[in-house]
From TrEMBL:
Domain Transcription regulator AsnC/Lrp ligand binding span(s) in chain numbering: 7-76
Protein name as catalogued: AsnC family protein
Gene Ontology terms: cellular component: cytosol
Organism annotation: Nocardioides szechwanensis
Alphabetized PANTHER family for the sequence: LEUCINE-RESPONSIVE REGULATORY PROTEIN, TRANSCRIPTIONAL REGULATOR AZLB
Biological-process GO terms, alphabetical: response to amino acid
One Gene Ontology MF term: sequence-specific DNA binding
One Pfam match: AsnC_trans_reg
């Protein structure tokens, strides 16, 4: 599984619509509206690099209201949540 973190600069007047359109794309697992230099962060989870290109270059970048993107490919995941789930025995 390949995870890409995509920083999105969007038309400020259309952020909710842009976020919903991106979230509806196959391969996009989550979209966050954030503060700072960028407007949205999208998490893309796909099986191979060709799929990364298909989701981001072919579809996400063409969503009306997307002005600019910056993509980061994750090498490894370090998540306390994932570790706790892996070692959980299901006991409270």
């Amino acid at each position: 599984m390949i995870t890409a973190i995509v920083f999105v600069k969007a038309d400020v007047a259309r952020i909710p619509e842009v976020a919903e359109a991106i979230a509806a794309l196959d391969g996009v697992s989550e979209v966050y509206s954030v503060t700072g230099q960028i407007d949205l962060i999208a998490l893309v989870r796909v099986r191979n690099h060709d799929d990364v290109a298909a989701v981001i270059a072919d579809r996400l970048n063409k969503v009306p209201g997307v002005n600019e993107t910056e993509t980061h490919i994750a090498f490894r995941s370090y998540s306390r949540h994932d570790l706790e789930s892996a070692f959980s025995l299901g006991l409270d």
